[in-house]
Amino acid sequence: MVQRLEKCGINAEGRPVVFCVMDGVGVFKEGPGNAFWLAKPENILKFIEEAKQNKLYREIYAHGEYVGLTDGDMGNSEVGHNALGSGNIYTQGARLVIESMREGTFWNTQQWKDMVVDTIKAGKTVHLFGLLSSGNVHSHIDQQIMIIQKVVECGGKRIRFHPLLDGRDVAPDSGLEFIAQLEEALAKARDAGCDACIASGGGRMHLVMDRYNAEWSMVERGFNQIVHGVVDPADIKDGYKGYYTTAKEAIEEGRRLFPTLLDQYAPGFVIVDAEGKPVGKLEEGDVVINTNFRGDRALEISNTFDQGAEFDKFDRAAHGPFPAVKYAGMLQYDSDLGIPKTYLVPPPSISDVMSEYTCELGIKSFAIAETHKYGHVTFFWNGNRLGYINKALEKYVEIPSEPSDMIEANPAMKAKEVTDELVAAIEAGEFDYYRVNYANGDMVGHTGSVPAAVEAVKTVDESLGRLWEAVKAKGGILVVTADHGNCEEVLDGKGKPKTSHTTNPVPFWIMDAKYDGKYTVNQDIDGGLANCAATTMNLLGYEKPEGYMQSLIDY
Ligand code: 3PG
Ligand code: CO
């Protein structure tokens, strides 16, 4: 349970505090792939300079063990916003799953028995789908291959895999390398007497992995491929057939016909036999396992499989009856709402998040982002819980985004609209604490386009300039940081596009319109994102909640 906190002596007047996340803007040396330096963001550079003079600037860490991952893992928005919003480091899905597999717990649970062992005994098929990647952001191929091996060990006679190509958390064109690894594991399964093969697939930003209700058509396309063996007719064009006998052939043909399309946007494919029949349609009694452990892009597809007649996003029976199958997630993606109903590993239990404290204290808060990052400042921020903690004290605003394939052409995204709305809220003065996420540095960074990423940084810069004017006019405090790096490294060491996040530290600074020198940013503690919540509580005028990681300020 959260405890009411005492005042700490800072900001006794209760001036507004604004916490700003520049998504995907890390700190890295100047170079041809560093969009931050190429953009020369005037406001940000000036703000940082001033903050340095006031001893209110430092860098903090946003990757590996600082966010509950394994040392050396790049950060990501889920773990980053979890840490920012909860004031603590929780061992995250990526680690929970692999540790439970290695220790053996994974294979000894009732869920594994019900989902896999019983399906095998009933002579049915084990279907696996998910992001085929070593990115360790949504999934890891080692875990997927371990599941295949274990199914065979348990006597499984039929496996169908529906891989989604990544190219967003790993090199943009690495899809075929992962397909080769998967094919090798499936070939071994076949050698051991299990009929195992790839059944369908395509790009992760085209199929299945939508988030925050942005593009349900992605989920529909993926569902129809996995369940009914049907490719979206819109994908079948310009010579691309949609139905192939191997995944490699489909991917190579897609690349040849659409050379500008990165793996993440690759068209869908369904694998067919010599007669042209899909090899892996779902049948009654089969089990489908979502091998992704991260929640945001797994919620919609989980509801699609789990919900009954109340499901209204699209017609699941448009291409034939939706068979009664069993569905399990690698993790439970939302434990409050119980999505999905069955899962193989219990998720981290993130408790006493900062929003619970602010609500308990009667602090009124406002959270805003455009759709692509909306759940980051709400769902992830609140420890993977959908919805309000206390609606009477909180307002969550989502500015509708454009589809993600339009981001490269419009790197400004909806930053202006986000800022308009946020500035208006600050001017109206109804809230004590505001938080915002600017998506540009990250979402544009994921395109691997340097000119677009430079524009993205300029957009964030302009927005921060406007934001500070509004905060200053209210005599408030603005805290700026990032959840992980991305746009500061849009090219790899060889000058090729780099679409994934980075392990770089992120900037952290405070701007206080009435700064009187009574507090400074501590340069000595080994600071990471999880230290920000206590810092914000201090700036709001309260002590560090018990059990939270140390604040970044000394006072
Ligand atoms: C995505 O889901 O878009 C990427 O895999 C990770 O990006 P994010 O952690 O910034 O959301
Ligand atoms: Co990202």
From TrEMBL:
Keywords from the UniProt entry: Glycolysis, Isomerase, Manganese, Metal-binding
Top-level class of the enzyme under EC nomenclature: isomerase
GO MF annotation: an example: manganese ion binding
Record: active site: 77 (phosphoserine intermediate)
Enzyme Commission numbers on file: 5.4.2.12
Residues that bind Mn(2+) 2: 23, 77, 483-484
Cofactor needs: Mn(2+)
Pathway the protein acts in: Carbohydrate degradation; glycolysis; pyruvate from D-glyceraldehyde 3-phosphate: step 3/5
GO BP terms: glucose catabolic process; glycolytic process
NCBIfam families found in the cross-reference section: pgm_bpd_ind
Family from the record: Belongs to the BPG-independent phosphoglycerate mutase family.
Name of the protein described by the UniProt record: phosphoglycerate mutase (2,3-diphosphoglycerate-independent)
